[in-house]
């Protein structure tokens, strides 16, 4: 432990951010960096608990007290070694993870938790600056080959691990550039895309082959996969939940991903064919209170929307621990994102009943109603009714549906491979096995577990790679969460 009394001496601090009005001038990241001295004091707050709950709070099993210790001692190379032994991409999670590790931090019981996520980001960035983050091509190859379908965080993590185990890995991606939702879902103001390119360059140097504009089951025949000894499906959960209410067909009602993907392509100078969806000068209604919704809020404000309003069907969370929400707290539920700081009116317990259009079929307003929620004995919302006389029209010329994703696309790849699906329509494979109902086909990430988080996708990619390695070699040299914990 670096400094025994650190947690008593120092307060949690986060790096400064550009002021909201400054951020809105561009799509760049706006969080400043810590100095090495600030990092040192933040790492010193780690109590090195007898039972580090942060390990189990992190889906990757990151060994957090150990890297905090190395940071406190200024041993950057050691800190990076420790961190990258469980997390292939700390530069991604250090920027966009909701940090369940911080919610599990014991110091968080009566003080602010250790700033683990920021420490993680800085370890990664310093590793790139000082040259510790570099390609490590393997010298002993196994002669086995693996196709990974999808280049989101799950596919990338699986590819990185399988390449490390000595297999020849080819990643197929239907988009023009790799990264999945990291590239075309999450906006640049949360994750600039050079961060992905920098990592992909290292993976290419390690021998991973990326084939883009390659949709397996569409313009790449599934039969091409027969050339590989194993296949990892990491195609994400891409079918959005719709809002089937009157007026859904009006011009001005879109899925969030139609809007976000287009904007990310605009920023990245990638071509797109669809008609431009712009929030400029409009009253924007974002339906859905999660990450996707807040990314729509931040993007609409950068487009210079007239107003931005966000709806959430569920009631407003209490903002403090309750019986329904004991420690460790769930950060997603309490979250006010930086996008909300930039300007947004938020409503909870509200339902949209219809979209109303003008004579030309353009959206002009939404018919909404307030909801009253009944709760169970623990205070959890279980049932709603409409509040009488609360129905009203709200002007909006652009509505963005950000209500989550149902399951992966079944047409094409999955149907042609004939893999089994679970009751929710995700690819069936028990957690811990990652093996589908087809012999040499495995699955990881949102395609298996349903819509989730980047940190879970990386975790699934790593664990799946170990199972593939065992399948191919009879044993595996790769680490798993269980062997580290
Ligand atoms: P994806 O990232 O979806 O990648 C799947 C890839 O597979 C895609 O590139 C797709 O084009 C490709 N593909 C699919 N089918 C084929 C095929 N047949 N052939 C070739 N390629 C194919 N999580 C966080 O932790 N923090 C956040 O801040 C956050 N923000 C988010 C914002 C938005 C707008 C969205 C939609 C999600 C966000 N998430 C966030 C969730 C997170 O991005 C996902 O959980 C994660 O990306 C899932 O990773 P994945 O690799 O399983 O799938």
Automatic annotation (TrEMBL):
InterPro entries: DPD_II, FAD/NAD-bd_sf, FAD/NAD-binding_dom, Glut_synth_ssu1, Glutamate_Synthase, Helical_ferredxn
Residues in FAD/NAD(P)-binding domain copies: 145-461
Residues of the Dihydroprymidine dehydrogenase domain: 23-130
Pathway stated in the Swiss-Prot or TrEMBL entry: Amino-acid biosynthesis
UniProt keyword terms in alphabetical order: Amino-acid biosynthesis, Glutamate biosynthesis, Oxidoreductase
UniProt key word Amino-acid biosynthesis: yes
Domain of life: Bacteria
Transmembrane segments: none
PANTHER family (UniProt xref): GLUTAMATE SYNTHASE [NADPH] SMALL CHAIN
Record's protein name: Glutamate synthase subunit beta
């Amino acid at each position: 432990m670096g400094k025994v009394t650190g947690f008593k001496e120092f307060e949690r601090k986060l790096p400064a951010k550009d002021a909201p009005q400054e951020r809105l001038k561009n799509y760049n990241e706006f969080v400043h960096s810590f100095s090495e001295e600030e990092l040192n004091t933040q790492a010193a707050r780690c109590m090195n608990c007898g039972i580090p709950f942060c390990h189990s709070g992190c889906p990757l099993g990151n060994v957090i007290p150990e890297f905090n210790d190395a940071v406190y001692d200024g041993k950057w190379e050691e800190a990076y070694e420790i961190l990258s032994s469980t997390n292939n991409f700390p530069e991604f999670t250090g920027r966009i993870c909701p940090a369940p590790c911080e919610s599990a931090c014991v110091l968080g019981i009566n003080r602010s938790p250790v700033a683990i996520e920021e420490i993680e980001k800085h370890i990664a960035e310093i590793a790139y600056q000082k040259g510790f983050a570099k390609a490590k091509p393997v010298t002993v190859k196994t002669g086995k080959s693996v196709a990974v379908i999808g280049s989101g965080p799950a596919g990338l993590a699986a590819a990185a691990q399988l390449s490390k185990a000595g297999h020849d890995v080819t990643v197929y991606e239907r988009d023009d550039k790799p990264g999945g939702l990291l590239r075309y879902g999450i906006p640049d103001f949360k994750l600039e895309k050079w961060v992905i390119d920098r990592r992909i360059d290292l993976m290419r140097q390690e021998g991973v082959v990326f084939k883009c504009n390659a949709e397996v089951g569409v313009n790449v025949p599934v039969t091409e996969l027969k050339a590989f000894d194993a296949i990892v499906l990491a195609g994400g959960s891409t079918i959005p939940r719709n809002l089937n209410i009157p007026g859904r067909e009006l011009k001005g009602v879109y899925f969030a991903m139609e809007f976000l993907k287009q904007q990310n392509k605009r920023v990245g100078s990638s071509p797109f064919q669809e008609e431009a969806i712009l929030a400029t000068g409009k009253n924007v209604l974002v339906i859905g209170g999660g990450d996707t919704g807040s990314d729509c809020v931040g993007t609409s404000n950068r487009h210079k929307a007239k107003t931005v309003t966000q709806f959430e069907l569920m009631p407003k969370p209490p903002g403090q621990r309750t019986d329904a929400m004991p420690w460790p707290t769930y950060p997603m539920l309490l979250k006010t994102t930086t996008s909300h700081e930039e300007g947004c009116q938020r409503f909870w317990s509200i339902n949209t009943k219809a979209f109303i259009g003008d004579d030309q079929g353009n959206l002009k307003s939404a018919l909404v109603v307030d909801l009253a929620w009944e709760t169970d004995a623990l205070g959890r919302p279980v049932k709603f009714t409409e509040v009488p006389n609360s129905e009203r029209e709200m002007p909006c010329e652009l509505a963005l549906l950000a209500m989550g994703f149902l399951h992966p696309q079944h047409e094409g790849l999955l149907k042609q491979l004939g893999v089994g699906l679970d009751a929710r329509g995700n690819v069936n494979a028990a957690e811990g096995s990652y093996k589908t109902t087809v012999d040499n086909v495995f699955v990881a990430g949102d395609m298996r577990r349903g819509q989730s988080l980047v940190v879970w996708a990386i975790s699934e990619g790593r664990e799946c790679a170990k199972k593939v390695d065992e399948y191919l070699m009879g044993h595996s040299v790769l680490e798993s969460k269980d062997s580290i914990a």
